[in-house]
Write a structure and sequence with these properties.
- It is a single chain.
- The protein is mostly beta strands.
- It is built from one helix and 28 strands.
Length: about 350
């Protein structure tokens, strides 16, 4: 049910130039009574920039300029307490994704700036940039790139083939998708990442972080809290993480550099686990059923035994600050170095 007002931006221009874009006049959208945003786009770019004060959203729009896009429009209307911005095809209605071929879908570049509100975004293809948006965001995109900078609130991202970058965000982050590179830098809050394949990098992130992937190179540098990492294949590289590392894998290899008071608990089936302990004390227990366990002779605190058909290397490295190391494999090699 439309409330108060609605308007349309038609995509029709006289004598268009191929592959050119046209801009609409900038608009100010009143937020009186508006508590949330819902944005639906086709392809192109979307920018959300949050500001601390104000009662208006500033809207800038550009669109692909061609007669083949004459049925496309951008509507802005309020339904209850939600402000909807929606790109749609007048001929096909809401079934445009199933009826309109990709080459006949126009590019819309939409930029919104103003007070942050809870926002839901559905985007088909292109770029999405969200900066300093201090409210919950739920966004889905099929392919392209998403960049989030600053801001706070719950952030939920779903994609198919997309690159994702999230920097200095405060709040819970949930990411689910299939492929593409992921870069997370300086974020604070819980992380739930379920990614099929593609490189994943975390730099100086803190919180309770849950990561699962079928085939990825996961790199974690710095940060702290709890890191729970599940890999089927690929490589896990962890350096200078302060807190608990709980890792499980099938064929993935592990390269870990840690120091007290870190707590490491890694279980791997056939993947190799290499650990370098930098400083501090540690209670160490390394065990494998078929894989070799290697350590240098100068590491005198470690002793090797056999028990229940498994090789066991254990000992206590003394230090004022203590950590714990538990590594278990079936056939993967384990290496300890200092």
């Amino acid at each position: 049910m439309f409330a108060l007002w609605s308007w349309l931006l038609p995509v029709v221009m006289a004598m268009p130039l191929p592959h050119s874009k046209s801009a609409y006049p900038d608009q100010r959208l009143s937020l009186w009574g508006v508590k949330s945003l819902h944005i639906v786009g086709v392809k192109g770019s979307l920018k959300l920039h949050g500001k601390n004060h104000g009662s208006y959203l500033n809207l800038k729009v550009q669109h692909a300029n061609s007669r083949i896009f004459e049925d496309w429009q951008l509507s802005v209307d309020r339904r209850g307490n939600t402000l909807f911005l929606e790109v749609y095809n007048a001929a096909s209605g809401k079934q445009w994704m199933n009826q309109v071929r990709a080459e006949f879908r126009p590019e819309f570049d939409i930029e919104l700036s103003g007070p942050s509100l809870p926002t839901v975004v559905g985007w088909n293809e292109g770029k999405m940039e969200i900066s300093h948006w201090n409210s919950d965001v739920e966004a889905s995109i099929l392919q392209g790139h998403v960049k989030v900078t600053g801001g706070s609130g719950a952030l939920t991202l779903q994609s198919v083939n997309t690159g994702l970058t999230v920097r200095t965000h405060t709040g819970a982050i949930q990411i689910k998708g299939e492929s593409g590179p992921i870069v997370l830098v300086g974020n604070h809050g819980a992380l739930n990442l379920d990614w099929l394949r593609g490189p994943v990098s975390l730099w100086d992130c803190s919180g309770n972080m849950q990561i699962a992937s079928q085939d990825s190179q996961v790199t974690v540098y710095g940060g702290g809290g709890e890191l729970h990492l599940q890999l089927t294949k690929g490589l896990a590289k962890i350096d200078a993480f302060k807190g608990l590392v709980n890792g499980q894998s099938q064929q993935a290899n592990w390269e870990i550099s840690a120091a007290a008071p870190a707590v490491l608990n890694v279980t791997s089936k056939s993947g190799q686990v290499g650990l370098k302990w930098k400083t501090g004390g540690a209670k160490v227990f390394l065990t494998s059923r078929q894989g070799p366990i290697g350590f240098t002779p100068k590491t005198k605190f470690l002793t090797a035994t056999d028990g229940d058909g498994r090789k066991i290397v254990e000992g206590v490295r003394t230090g004022q600050i203590m950590g714990q190391v538990f590594i278990r494999t079936e056939s993967g090699a384990i290496g300890w170095s200092e």
